Amino acid sequence: MTESSARFPAEWEPQSAILLAWPNADTDWADRLGEVEETYIALVAAITRFQPAIVCVADADVEAYARARLSSARVDMERVRFVEVPYDDTWLRDSGPISLREGDGFRLLDFRFTGWGGKFDASQDDRLVERLHEMGIFSKSSRQSIDFALEGGAIETDGAGTLLTTWTCLGERHPGASRDELAAQLAGWLAQERVLWLEHGALEGDDTDAHVDTLARFAAPDAIVYQACNDPSDSHYEGLQAMAAELAALRTAQGQPYRLFALPWPAPVLDDGRRLAASYANFLIVNGAVLMPAYGDPADPAAAAVLQQAFPGREIVQVPCRPLIWQNGSLHCVTMQLPAGLVA
Length: 344
Known about the structure:
- It holds the Pfam family PAD_porph.
- It comes from Luteimonas composti.
- Keywords: Hydrolase.
- This is Agmatine deiminase family protein.
- It is a single chain.
- This protein is α/β, with parallel strands linked by helices.
- The protein has a single domain (3-339), classed as L-arginine/glycine Amidinotransferase, Chain A (5-stranded Propeller), CATH 3.75.10.
- The chain has helices at residues 33-47, 60-72, 92-95, 115-118, 128-134, 167-173, 179-190, 237-249, 300-310; strands at residues 6-7, 15-21, 53-57, 80-84, 98-102, 105-112, 141-149, 155-157, 162-166, 194-198, 216-220, 223-227, 259-263, 270-271, 274-275, 284-286, 289-294, 315-320, 336-339.
- The strands form six sheets. It has a four-stranded mixed beta sheet with strand order 1-5-6-7, with helices on one face. Strands 4-3-2-19 form a four-stranded mixed beta sheet. It has a three-stranded mixed beta sheet with strand order 8-9-10, with helices on both faces.
- A hairpin with a 4-residue loop joins strand 8 (155-157) and strand 9 (162-166).
- It starts with 5 loop residues before the first strand and ends in a 5-residue tail after the last strand.
């Protein structure tokens, strides 16, 4: 296969499953395991209404416990598959496979996962894709190991050759590379025709260095949903206003402005005085639905209404994600979609 025969599908294209990892006492969730387990139960319940979930578990005891919790919550266990594999933490968006369609099969891109630039140990997570591939989880697929630090949450594709990312993150990961060099590398590996960069926008409490999936997401090749801030007294106001102006200036591959959908701004969520990164842009698209992070905020219903406008014909399902942002991520960050046909 030639490089040009590959295609990076958009998240809204048909999926075979969602990949995630169950939190346990050996992950960073240990101090608040009970709270986050409730979120995972709600998340798996929501996913399995629409498609299968593949749940990574650290060992047989974790699997037995997760199975019991999900069964007692009346989750459709026919759609839950457990896979025993080592992992450091549960941020599968960043340690899971980036899947390209290639002919009648798939190429799994296995970039280096460095714990967001060496902030956390990630030696097990960095081997996750390799191990899952060796276990035969994926069908008709090859694995391409790429010695380049890149997380799935740092990139967005429209499925038609346009990539959206942030200079804050990629510049931080690769300080010796120019924007043109990084764009060329990303376009080559990810089978993209162009790369759009955002200069502005970052959330306090986000240790990913401004992953795009907390800020702006494609809803269609001509539409972008983004996290707005309309509170001039908020510390995020200036940066997110600047990002909104950047998005308004972007053009589609056909030279048209994007249809833009502004998500409302939730009230600050503090934990022992620390601001947590609550973003409605961290939603997950599944077959027939959009799973939206809900924070118990008065803006939750308004965010759901915006997503309904951006994704007509899909059900909007709110998943309580307040426990997730304690560890600086949300719903999209803990999941990775697997395109239709990829799962054996």
